[in-house]
Amino acid sequence: MIARVIVDVPSRQTDRPFDYEVPEELAGWVEPGSRVGVPFGGRVVQGFVIATAEQADVDRSKLKPIAELLDHMPPLSPDLIELGQWISEKYCCPMTVALQAMLPSALKGKAESYVAIAPDKAEAALFEADWMNYIRQQGGETKLASLQAKFPDAAREVKAAIAEGRLTERAAIRDRLSVRKVLTVFPPADREEAELALTAIPARAAKQREVLRYMIGQEDPIPLQALIETLSTTSSTVRALADKGLLVMQEVEQNRDPYAGRSFRRTEPLTLMEGQQKVYDQIADALDVAEPRVFLLHGVTGSGKTEVYLQAIEHCLDLGKQAIVLVPEISLTPQMVERFKGRFGHEVAVLHSRLSGGERYDEWRKIREKRARVAVGARSAIFAPFERLGLIIIDEEHESSYKQEESPKYHARDVAVRRAKQHGAAVVLGSATPSLESYTAAALTNASSDGRGAALLPMPERVGGKPMPPVTIVDMREELRGGNRAMFSRPLYEGLKLRLERGEQSVLLLNRRGYSTFVMCRACGYTAQCPHCDIALTYHQKSRVLRCHYCGHAEGSPTACPSCESEHIRFFGTGTQRVEEELSKLFPGIRVIRMDVDTTTEKGSHEKWLTMFGERKADVLLGTQMVAKGLDFPYVTLVGAIAADTSLHLPDFRAAEKTFQLLTQVAGRAGRHRLPGEVIIQTYNPEHYAITTAQHHDYDAFVKEELSHRRQMAYPPYCRLILITLSHEQLPQVINAGDKLAGLLRQSAEEAGAGGGGFNSRFIEVLGPVASSIPRIKDRYRFQCMVKYRGNVDAVGIVRVAVAAVARPQDKASVQISVDVDPQVIL
Ligand SMILES: Nc1ncnc2c1ncn2[C@@H]1O[C@H](COP(=O)(O)OP(=O)(O)OP(=O)(O)O)[C@@H](O)[C@H]1O
Ligand SMILES: [Zn+2]
Ligand SMILES: [Zn+2]
């Protein structure tokens, strides 16, 4: 048998299957999706079998055999392999990169060397060496690394032994992490017999008696360590019983459950409101027919989307299928997890980046071994290894974190639609502020009603007919003119004061997008820049260092201006810290919880802060984007947005959209329950449509205005984009390569018969090369080309060919080229 293997060497030349011979003894085990170790270029590398065949494409006698099989159960299924193929084509990345992205990092194997005593060369004299003895004790073979660690002085002898063939070397792939096994004690199988044995244990072995008596009373096996602690006994006591055959000790696989020991209050389905019911019925119908369908659930904040998700999942499970729920990493808060665990209990696997590698691996295995039927997680949970997928839900579908910024630069929404097609599953995209791409796709579909694309499901009202909170816009320029130079406007100050008096809570958002903390000299205007990247350094108050967020460069903060030596150098400290200080100055004794990158790095810190806030142990929850989403607290009656417009002027065509979304989301945190809420937005751009439409909760008005700008500028959704970034340490090299690439792209665009701009239904246009908005990162100059296209042109294909012609990956010093299809970030 022949196996077609994708080797884990991510480069353009090796991005094709290589044939290997499957050794006789592995023939029954190797199948598509198997992970194997194969000899490649003089070493052993990890690879994935994507197909098996009887015939090879090349001379079979030249084929090398597979060196080893890495798992008993293939970690990838045929549908995931096919999905990997699709990702690799659509997003222009090597197939192995796409396949690796689907697996938990624990399964990224690394090669390890082993040395063994050659069977025919085991001469007696050799065994005098300590290290040789050691190998013998290990059963004739040992890890080279442990031999090196134990016998650092033996390097020359070992090398000589390998060279002379007395030792043989073997490479193998080892996983970074493995299943955790715990020595566990089982209660006696036959209790009566054990009782008898108990009486026979001599009195001087009182400890043994105690252990046995205890174990007779147990229903479940107990980890040895726990038993030792409970009875304050020793392992030798337990072992003595095991030796007598009275107890059984065995290694048992243990799961690292990140939510172990937490109980989730079981919830029952609520009676759906009319609006929810209508939407639910349509999703349930789609589940019943089991055809791939996409829905866009446009429900205002507090309209009860989550309850619809929960009941749709329940229906999906009743049909014997499984469900995936994607939520943005940032809102993967305990509150969110609790809602799913509360309804589906142990059947929920949770996958997110704050779990340790081992925990994530165990949650993944829970899915693969069919112990979980619902996966809740961030972006990569879209690859959860379910076999009968019925439903995929993407909450807050407009979030840019669904796009991965490293290769494979996939968008989870598009991958979801593709996976749903494979399984005949339904996709529900939910948001109060859908992305313009999804919204126009859905609006078009409804109009043409040919059943393709997405169907729009509106939920325009809050649960129980609660009103949307009134929003006040405060013009900060007016405040300044009125003599108020503080960061809080008068209305926001009054609002906070009132909440404190009433014992209600407030949420304060500091929009940090486009607002960073930097060092500037007031005398000459000097700002501290990174020496390796063309970007300002960020000031970290806690450690008092200046740090570059792109390359990690750090330096101490200056006491005088390096440029003019003035002492008027000022640190524009982190926004949230300053707001916190200001709050305690204005309202002595105020209890503030601050949530930002600095206060949430520790594991479980999100949880801690939000629980505290939920228990009303604080008056104000102050934070960045992470306080804007998904939170549902009954005593929050005021939401304030400080500096709402910092994100409006970024060089990004989605700037207005992002600002509108953020303001709408955070406004939605107020007045969700019995108490009415109020929202105050502080801005320097009170007339901007992103702000005024957010004030009136008017998504449609925003979309109309924004679409007219997009049409004018020919930006998505009126076209699609591919961003190609070139980088090199030498400026001329980047410029040359950029010119060459742009030339090739333009030529192919013309040949495709769709050159030039204009608004014919099919076009492709090449912009650039121009310097990127951050022109240098990590000492590498950056230039970019942008391809805009529409209609059925194979733009990705054109880009792939052009990039392959310009890049010379075998040459390490050549220009690096990265391709981003449907980019979210174009800096
Ligand atoms: N059918 C129902 N009957 C009673 N209460 C409901 C019902 N559906 C939802 N709720 C409650 O209404 C509140 C808002 O619902 P939910 O959080 O699901 O809204 P959402 O649309 O997801 O909002 P957001 O987009 O702001 O996160 C919650 O407290 C929820 O428990
Ligand atoms: Zn200066
Ligand atoms: Zn830098």
Structure commentary:
The chain is α/β, with parallel strands linked by helices and 827 residues long. The chain folds into six domains: 2-109, 3-Layer(aba) Sandwich (GIY-YIG endonuclease), CATH 3.40.1440.60; 111-174; 188-246, no CATH class; 274-464, Rossmann fold, CATH 3.40.50.300; 471-517 and 574-710, P-loop containing nucleotide triphosphate hydrolases (Rossmann fold); 720-821, Ribosomal protein S10 (Alpha-Beta Plaits, 2-Layer Sandwich), CATH 3.30.70. Helices cover 32% and strands 23% of the residues. It is built from 24 helices and 33 strands. The strands form eight sheets. A seven-stranded parallel β-sheet has the order 14-15-13-16-17-12-18, sandwiched between helices. It has a six-stranded parallel β-sheet with strand order 19-29-28-20-27-26, with helices on both faces. A five-stranded antiparallel β-sheet has the order 2-1-4-3-5. Helix 13 links the parallel strand 14 and strand 15 (374-377). The chain starts with a strand and ends in a 6-residue tail after the last strand. One zinc ion binds at residues 530, 532-533, 548, 550-551, 553.
